[in-house]
Amino acid sequence: MMKILIIGNMGYVGPAVIKELARCHPDAVLHGYDNAYFAHCLTGAQTLPERHLEKQFFGDVRKIPEGMLDGYTAVVQLAAISNDPMGSRFAAMTKEINQEATVRIARQAARENVKNFVFASSCSVYGVASGEPRKEGDALSPMTDYARSKIDSEEALGGIGGDMVITNLRFATACGMSERLRLDLVLNDFVACALSQKKITVLSDGTPWRPLIDVMDMGRAIDWAVQRDASTGGRILSINTGSNQRNHQVRDLAYAVAEAVPGTSVSINEGAAVDSRSYKVDFSLYESLAPHHQPQMTLNDSIQGLIDGLTRMNFKDADFRGSDLMRLQVLQGHVDEGRLTDTLAWDSDQ
Asked: Which residues neighbour 294 within 8 Å (Cβ) at sequence distance 6 or greater?
């Protein structure tokens, strides 16, 4: 029987991961571990996503107790300062949480005989990447603290010896509806703009490329990785995780959302400087190694899921970029109100 610990389960991706693992493995024991920065950011959920877990542990990923991982067959590391603005604002903590804690947890997992370790990495490690879609062996060019934390983690994980199977899932840009929704992601932002303002403003000239993956498909990928054998891809594997069909130009995302929300206009800054954050990614390796866990959600599926979810929430906030649906706003709010220290530790006096 599988026993899986999902670290960072109370964020944007975690609810979809828990749901997928519970669906595919009804007899598995699922536990969560999270410091609850975003636990209150529920978006239209009728019941807690953690209902699928046998236990929910609370704690800082930088301080997971020795011995805690003993008995788990798989550990999934989702916990991270999760995007470029937060990575820039909290650069030191991004390194501590995204990189140093990840490597420490993986080494602990190896010592405590965990069979599979899954790390949520990112395609952002390719940075500026014009030309052909990037493959796993291509040069890396991380441009941000967030991206650097991911590739530095991968490199350190590659040095862990023993038998533990390590899978670094280089996810495409996340999108889609979640029970703890984020709107600081390109497609999610466009849908929120369409519903609240009936206008999508693209700050770039619309030509940059983005690979997307729905959170539901991220759950499918993690289901594959927690079971992966070393004979499939090697004991330590870094793999682009997404679909070749979901490399999109930003302007096409905007127009697809506008078509789904009648009356929405699109404004593109044709004179903008070239956006360096443009890359296409080759997901052929994932397609060959995980044929039964391929992404199922189309672009229109993701858009409609967001429309339905935000409509259920009666979402109409045209100023949503200053709301709790933006992760940087939530963290900064905790700090400003004294709930979190500047090192993103909970104030014990609160």
From this structure: 220, 243, 286, 287
Closest CA to 191 of 253, 137, 147: 253
Q: Of 124, 42, 44, 136, give the one whose Cα is nearest residue 87.
A: 124
The CA radius of gyration of the chain, in Å to the nearest whole number, is 19
d(CA 231, CA 65): 31
> Are the C-beta atoms of 170 and 237 separated by less than 8 Å?
no
The answer on pLDDT for 251 being more than 90 is yes
Helices and strands (H and E) in the chain: how many: 11, 14
For 299, phi then psi, to 5°, come to -60, -45
Q: Please answer whether residues 49 and 17 qualify as being in contact, where contact means their C-beta atoms are separated by less than 8 angstroms.
A: no
Separation between Cα atoms, residue 117 and residue 75, nearest integer Å: 5
CB 256 within 8 A of CB 300: yes
Q: What value, to the nearest 5°, has the Cα angle with vertex 247 and ends 98 and 10? A: 35
Confidence of residue 350 (pLDDT cuts 50, 70, 90): very low
pTM of the model: 0.96
Residue type, position 28, single letter: A
pLDDT digit string (tens) for 40-57?
A: 999 977 889 999 999 999
- Give me the domains of the chain, ranges plus CATH numbers: 3-336 (3.40.50.720)
Closest residue by Cα to residue 77 from 112, 57, 101: 101
